[in-house]
Amino acid sequence: MDLNLMRELSVKTDSKIVLLVVDGLGGLPLEPGGRTELEEASTPNLDALAARSDLGLSRPVAAGVSPGSGPGHLGLFGYDPLRFQVGRGVLSALGVGFDLQNSDLAARINFATLDDSGKISDRRAGRIPSEKGEELVALLNENLKIDGVEVFITHEKEYRAVAVFRAEGLSGELSDTDPQRVGLEPLPVKPQDDSPETRKSAQLANAFVEEANEILADQHPANTVLLRGFGMHPALPSFEEAYKLDAAAIASYPMYKGLARLAGMQLLQEGAGIAGEFETLKENWHAHDFFFLHVKPTDAAGEDGDFARKASVIEEVDAQIPGLLDLAPDAIAITGDHATPAKMKSHSWHGVPILVNSPYTLPTTDRFGERPCAGGSLGVFPAEEIMGYLMGHALKLNRFGA
Amino acid sequence: MDLNLMRELSVKTDSKIVLLVVDGLGGLPLEPGGRTELEEASTPNLDALAARSDLGLSRPVAAGVSPGSGPGHLGLFGYDPLRFQVGRGVLSALGVGFDLQNSDLAARINFATLDDSGKISDRRAGRIPSEKGEELVALLNENLKIDGVEVFITHEKEYRAVAVFRAEGLSGELSDTDPQRVGLEPLPVKPQDDSPETRKSAQLANAFVEEANEILADQHPANTVLLRGFGMHPALPSFEEAYKLDAAAIASYPMYKGLARLAGMQLLQEGAGIAGEFETLKENWHAHDFFFLHVKPTDAAGEDGDFARKASVIEEVDAQIPGLLDLAPDAIAITGDHATPAKMKSHSWHGVPILVNSPYTLPTTDRFGERPCAGGSLGVFPAEEIMGYLMGHALKLNRFGA
Fold first, then answer.
1. Within an 8 Å CB–CB cutoff, is residue A78 touching chain B?
2. Are residues B82 and A5, on separate chains, in Cβ contact within 8 Å?
3. DSSP 8-state assignment for residue A383
4. Domain B90-232 has CATH 3.10.450
5. Domain A3-86+235-393 - what CATH class?
6. Which spans in B176-296 are helix H?
7. CA-CA distance, B353 to B376, in Å (whole number)?
8. Which ipTM was obtained for this model?
9. Annotated domain spans of chain A
10. Average pLDDT value over all residues in chain A
11. Which residues of A touch B66 (CB under 8 A)?
12. What pLDDT digit, counting tens, does each position of B361-376 carry?
């Protein structure tokens, strides 16, 4: 999406937009001739909405390329995922609510197990419980002292935490220490370019690992840390800047909260489960004009290869559609950040079904599913354009040119 | 469209192309489940042609963005409408047949009414008749003298005229004087950048308004001028340069004549009404190898919210198709510059049905309409690519690469 064009044409109005992201929505038939997860699910409400909507297949990132959640969501928010690359560390820091500043360097921490020969024997430290993880994070925060940099460590979940390095002149062009396999030694952090900032940052990160190893020496199985996904805060224009939208996010996982915060969205305290998230939407309906609502379990079911469970989560979403429509949003998009076909047990590059609803649509079918979407009036198009369509359908864009 | 590629591959041949632009052709159903204007119209000739054509939906400018006529047509002619932005003043100057030079600065004039306190009380001077407008233009041309610049004023219609400033070193980066609402004072022309050219041009434009006010002082209700849409002639490669086409235009409104002249097309003196325009095509058939034929009343009916009238204009176009086919064009495209759904009473961002006919097509249906086009063999694609398809279908492009 050309965000300068959006900035130029967008106007503040009372109309309200909902972007419902059913994570990993896109699927595949298990066998030729079969149905996808979405096609197999019984979705009377989504089907009825499809009969009044524009349909299409949205394509994340590039042909054949399976996106992670970061680029998948940046695209949905209208940011070019190839231009704005966000390190996993940054996403985690934002997700735990850390107030990341522009000059901060973030990295993801896994607590892990080193054996006597200095090799990794468990990359997740025996999946220590969250209480233990919190305890170890406190221990590190108390004892770590590295010259020339402040380090903030925040616990995420179980064996996962985030480190934020605060100093002037840092860089995120650093390699991971995680060798990705057990039986190998942890790698040193290596600078990925030759700038003084990057060399300095690599030194600090290696000093951090060395000190952490000393502090954790007696904490087997969590006697070391692996660092991954180094990165700085990317300079994304916010939703307010790009679209003049006062945007709010409802998501249950840290990563998606982090992505929403990158776009300048306000995080709403979400209710439990899918129904709880829609309840949160309802409660906050009058306070914002854009809502990003993220549903996670479809993706998890797809990753587990559980076709039936994924279809059943989609049915759970379908049950919430009447309540969503009762709010009378001016424009709605329902899609995923990527496909996660149960058949592949992973994210994939396939087109993701999308439905865009407003009073101004060209419906082509009365079913929401991959195949009906392939023949829809939106065609097969880059996910980055979805925000443009939503802004148009909500009548929030001025005409371009005389 | 990559015009350098077109320039490299295009060859001069005897084959002939017709680009029939039915302005604002795209539409929407008034109610879910209903038909669009084009689908509702009885179009036996277009349907029969669709059965022998490639179909698709062409998308102007960007997702969700409703284009003005300028960017809409630049896209149809293969120019990137985001790169080549043309001020309304330039379009008007070209439309009235003014021989605009590359260093000229053009702006649109509205005659308007100033009240005793210096505020605008009518932005259209009581919609003075064209004869009065002509008289006032003559008065201005006789009496205006501004040091360092020649000014040419040409009457357009009723309260509308065009001013062209001719001097070296001008710039079009100027703001309008029209405050867009009555009850406000006219705005001064402000430079939009800090270059000497722009500051000089702002001074000249403000001097123009001051002198015009003196000359028009006794001409209530047309006792002032508002200036809008400043701009210089954009450096578009002509159809001859880009495509090696000797192009001619048949259009009844100044704006579309202006757009055609920007592309270097020769303006043909058009007959009256839609039938008259097709008659002009027939009379000039042997003199050119590309014809742009512009039909306006569909857009006007859409803007008026008159679904039935828009459908009826489409039927009028349909009646001309047999005569068009009798000329045996080698390639034909029939589309619009944008959608103007009667439901919205305005231009919109929706896909515009397009039919491309030649002996080399992949037909998918026997109906011309938005929904049949959504499933066509051209897909949903940028309007800028239409000229490429026309050149291909007319066998006017060499193979690219060995």
1. no
2. yes
3. G
4. no
5. alpha beta
6. 196-215, 239-243, 254-262, 273-283
7. 10
8. 0.88
9. 3-86+235-393, 90-232
10. 95
11. 392, 397, 399-400
12. 999 999 999 999 999 9
